Predict the 3D structure of the following.
Amino acid sequence: MQSLTIYHMYPDAMNLYGDLGNVVTLRRRMLERGISVDIVNVGRGVKADFSKADIVFLGGGQDRGQKIIADDLAKRGPAIKREVERGLVCLTICGGFQLFGKYFKTKEGEMLPGISVFDAYTVGSDKRCIGNVVLDIEAEAKKWKSTLNTLVGFENHSGLTYLEGKTRPLGKVKIGYGNTGDRKYEGAVYNNCYGTYLHGPVLPKNPHFADHLIQMAINRKYGSWARMKQIDDRIELAAHKAAVLRAKTAKTAHI
Ligand code: GLN
């Protein structure tokens, strides 16, 4: 029987807007395929061997939560980066995404160290990017062998993230603000490591994203593997569609 281990980073300090739901979704979709799941909560000071992780998850957090965990995460940076180069699958959300970049400079000018998995940096701003988001992820969807090429979610951040080097965006903004508030690009991808501002939590309404992360982890651990059996996603896809419609009708929308 296949098994996968999820390292859930700082579940107490970094769990904004129910981002924990992403771990619940990954676990549920693995169990439905007969994959056994081990979830390891990695809080501050908890020993963790990242060579034993199949998926690392880090949720969003207010500036306060980020300040609480930044130094502990920085100590783990070299080990996480090493495994990312070996194909470790990561999903990082908002404040977690920001700390997977080079640094987060808060609005007050405080420099929080990142672990430089993403060639990116974040600066706090007076602009609050908040609202429903719809992304066009056509390029990624092709890689995921997914026919659904949108991602939906909710963003709430004042940090603006600038991508550099080999780190590419996750998608193009159709509705919402995105990484720098200019409504152009959102998120970040480097190897099998994903960052996004999408809360929601993001995975329940984006089953194609969840399955891509699981498939990458399976392929890495067991070699290239036949595509996972399909799950009945009628409810998830109906939720996705409803979220797109709500974003289109919300007053902040722009098309
Ligand atoms: N504190 C960060 C910001 O405001 C991240 C917020 C979040 O995780 N939603 O940009």
About this structure: Residues 138 and 224 are 23 Å apart (CA to CA).
